[in-house]
Specification:
This protein is an alpha+beta fold and about 350 residues long. The protein has helices at about 1-15, 40-45, 50, 145-170, 175-180, 210-230, 295-305, and strands spanning about 25-35, 65-70, 80, 85-95, 100-105, 115-120, 130-135, 185-190, 195-205, 240-250, 255-260, 270-275, 280-290, 315-320, 335-340. The longest helix has 28 residues, at about 145-170.
């Protein structure tokens, strides 16, 4: 009995002293490299609605209840959730574009004022290294046992979140903010918000020179009408767009509209008409290079759609991000191509 009592006393002493050697705060950290630009990754953490789609807490429970605070993105954004497995509140305290986001976290059994931080490092425009860290405030003496047994589980949770994020980035449509980070040659889906164009309709053969001539004449006519005749400020005129209603190789015919997005109602000139591009989920890619090679990018997009079981509409449009006149080297021309997905 005496021997047993001594062993029990030693165990009690060990339990009392062990926290001295354990971390006094909970800390979990993961790192991952993504094959995507920093702007795309950043927005997944900066936009709380996007974050909630893949976070490792509320998104894993289909019955979880979520409530978002306006604004939905950037400093001050946040949301709270309640689920069978966890509950908590996350709020953005600092948002440094494509570099750093800091949050306060309540819940997750971490206490009231835990911190979460995400750092973004992009040496290559198509790759982003991410470091994601969560740490609690200083824990009570005996709560350090909890820190020791919980930090590993939390690290695993963070890693699961990043794995789900990577999967979402490959399949989900881009937000408007993410779309600005699309790099030339990268093919993604994007939610197009819709636009109203003032256009001139053209019907031509598929001859490149004929299409080029009709396109340039249409843009010149409309831009001159808007700025010279209507005295509309260039700042109210968007980038030129060519909308192809159909391209029929069998009949060697194309029907397309050339025009400019406008934000206010204007009187139409002779031969002009309004064309509405409806909001839709689209397949997008930025073509970098001469306009006479746009068809090569179109074919790559269609091949991508086939491999990923995406059904495309027959129509598509091209937004010219810069002009040949202001871009001496045609290899630096940028054209964003949109192809709507079938519903």
């Amino acid at each position: 009995m005496k021997r047993i009592a001594q062993i029990l006393i030693l165990l009690i002493v060990a339990l009392l002293l062990a926290p001295i050697f354990l971390p006094d705060k909970l800390n979990a950290e993961v790192e991952k490299e993504f094959e995507f630009p920093a702007g795309m990754i950043f927005e997944e953490f900066n936009n709380m609605k996007e974050f909630s789609e893949w976070d490792p807490w509320s998104s894993v429970d289909s019955l979880s209840s979520q409530e978002f605070y306006a604004p939905y993105r950037g400093m001050g954004a946040g949301y709270k959730w309640t689920s069978n497995n966890s509950n908590g509140v996350i709020t953005v305290n600092k948002s440094d574009q494509n570099k750093l986001i800091e949050y306060t976290v309540e819940g997750l059994d971490l206490g009231k004022n835990s911190q979460m931080k995400v750092e973004f490092n992009s040496d290559n425009s198509n790759k982003t290294k991410l470091k994601w860290n969560i740490s609690s405030e200083k824990l009570g003496y005996f709560s350090r046992y909890y820190s020791y047994f919980t930090s590993k589980n939390l690290t695993e949770k963070l890693q699961q979140g990043l794995d789900k994020l990577e999967k979402n980035l490959k399949t989900s449509a881009l937000t408007p903010e993410q779309a600005h980070s699309l790099m030339p040659g990268m093919i993604k889906t994007e939610m197009f918000e819709g636009q109203k164009l003032i256009t001139v309709m053209n019907e031509t053969s598929l001859d490149e020179e004929e299409i080029k001539t009709a396109t340039e004449e249409s843009f010149g006519l409309i831009y001159s009408y808007l700025t010279d005749f209507l005295k509309l400020s260039p700042t109210k005129i968007g980038q030129p767009i060519s909308y192809y209603e159909f391209v029929d190789s069998a009949s060697n015919k194309a029907k397309f509209y050339c025009g400019y997005p406008i934000t206010e109602s204007v009187k139409l000139g002779e031969g002009m008409e309004l064309k509405a591009l409806s909001s839709a989920e689209t397949l997008v890619c930025i073509h970098k290079g001469n306009h006479n090679k746009l068809n090569e990018t179109l074919l790559k997009m269609k091949d991508h759609a086939m491999k990923n079981n995406l059904k495309l509409e027959n129509s598509y449009w091209q937004e010219y991000e810069n002009e040949p006149k202001s871009t001496p080297n045609p290899e630096n021309l940028l054209t964003k191509i949109y192809i709507p997905l079938q519903k």
